[in-house]
Amino acid sequence: MSYDLVIIGGGPGGYNCAIRAGQLGLKTAIIESRGKLGGTCLNVGCIPSKALLHASEYYEAAAKTFPSMGVKITGLSLDLPQMLKQKEDAVDGLTKGVEFLMRKNKVDYVKGFGRIAGKGRVEVKLADGGSQTLETKNIVIATGSVPTPLPGVDIDEERIVSSTGALSLKQVPGKLIVVGAGVIGLELGSVWRRLGAEVTVVEFLDKITPTVDAEISAAFQRALKKQGMKFELGHKVAGVEKTSSGLLVTIEPAKGGPARTLEADVVLVAIGRKPFTEGLGLDSAGVKADPRGFIPHDGHFKTNVEGVYVIGDCTTGPMLAHKAEDEGIAAAQIIAGQWGHVNYDVIPNVIYTDPEVATAGKTEEELKAAGVEYKAGKFPMMANSRARTNHQTEGMVKVLEEVATKKVVGVHMLGSGVGEMIGEVCVAMEFGASAEDIARTCHAHPTMSEAIKEATKGVDGWTMQA
Ligand code: FAD
Ligand code: NAI
Predict the structure, then answer these.
(1) Which of 143, 211, 370, 413 is most exposed by smallest CB count within 10 Å?
(2) Catalytic: which of 300, 341, 391, 445?
């Protein structure tokens, strides 16, 4: 078989690259080894985690918020198997949808494990047995990432789990210890806390979500604490011992000091993810990776080897599905002889807890470190009429504008549903908007997005509603 493009990996990077390549008339094949398209995101990442976050939010709201709204429920109970089933249904529907999109765009889907076997050749160990070699003008590596292991702690995906196991626990743990106060730990920690677990998060650093703007991160932690999540910041897990009745987790201060032991039923290890390129034949193909395993590119997704491109989690940049998707589109367009580009300054980042965190652009800490003069405008959700009406007053919006260019360079939000509001900000930033451009744009009333408008007014000192 001879192709214009062979993509190794069927996640959001790979499958969007395939769709765009198909649209542009490139003869394209996509190779995926897990038996389903959609990658980490659809199978064990974004989609199942959001399905559980959504359902568990309803469950908690039914118990704790509905009565104050005048909605009384008697006999409320959790049907965990059904909650897990509706999650699987969402995954199944979407992965089948991606298969349909491959057929629609005339992309060949090859089920198996791909290896670069030389210039323009990809050998596939087929899922059904045997192997097949694909000849191709171009190769895109889109092999994604896997959880970073914690040395000395063996994941069994039942009692000591990665995010994958934490998406399918058969019962609600009495005590859940989460290692790592990053996105996975706080999202999945929230799911199981809402369903009844006592959740303690052990984090190496002195703050949660270390890359988030410090003011937002501190407010976020206060919100999670109020909900009952416990934190052991500045601590690391030294070991986990399995006993017949549970787990004994030894933690010690990151800066040194006496160790303590915590009891748990389940431990979730969520200390980051690492690129996955095992068995891909990088060495024999001469494709270089950095010491952490990421395959760098030249800014146009080309690796150091002619005709070999890389996108998504296995290359540099944030490990996000929409970043992988945009890189896939750009790479396909470049391979088709068109223009392709990703603006890494405007990639939204959302943590789908309640309240949500949604950010784009630079934090105050980054601007200070870079010596960039900026003005900040802030607005508390407490003063937003819709937030008050909905009894969702936790959080704030913060807008940062660079003084020299008068452009919005960072927006940081905490609040219910802010993940849906960040899109507006990204469009504005892509068009080089000033805070005033957003402030003078008519926003519907009453909406939470008016909080963005008020915060942008604040940049020039004329916030009106607080
Ligand atoms: P992947 O999705 O990892 O896909 C790579 C695919 O390549 C895999 O299916 C793998 O089986 C396959 N593969 C690897 N090697 C080979 C080979 N040699 N041959 C054939 N196939 C191969 N991101 C967000 O933006 N929003 C979220 O809400 C979000 N939630 C997440 C929740 C969790 C629990 C996790 C773990 C991740 C989440 N992410 C989220 C991150 C997101 O899943 C990744 O950034 C995204 O999936 C990366 O896409 P990718 O295409 O680069 O790689
Ligand atoms: P993360 O990088 O977000 O957080 C890991 C946390 O673990 C950090 O706070 C880090 O300081 C801490 N840590 C590292 N080693 C530790 C140790 N030994 N002991 C205690 N703490 C330790 O990584 P996470 O949560 O595993 O997620 C991986 C990636 O998946 C994210 O970076 C993100 O790109 C992606 N993701 C995105 C989501 C979204 O967009 N909503 C949801 C889930 C994952």
Answers:
(1) 370
(2) 445
Determine if ligand 2 sits within 6 Å of the CB of residue 312.
Answer: no
CA 313 to ligand 1: nearest atom: 52
Question: What is the number of residues in the chain?
Answer: 466
Rounded to two decimals, the pTM is 0.98
Bridge-based pairing of strands 175-179 and 198-203 is parallel
Q: What is the mean pLDDT of residues 40-68?
A: 97
Let me know: does 194 contact 56? Beta carbons within 8 Å: yes
Beta bridge partners of 239: 250
Q: Within the chain, which residue ranges are assigned CATH 3.50.50.60?
A: 2-147+274-335, 160-271
Beta bridge partners of 402: 374, 407
Answer yes or no: is pLDDT of 1 > 90: no
The closest alpha carbon to 461, from 428, 440, 436, belongs to 436
Q: Residue 398: is its pLDDT beyond 90?
A: yes
| Catalytic status, residue 391 | no
Architecture of domain 2-147+274-335: 3-Layer(bba) Sandwich (3.50)
Residue 306: pLDDT over 90: yes
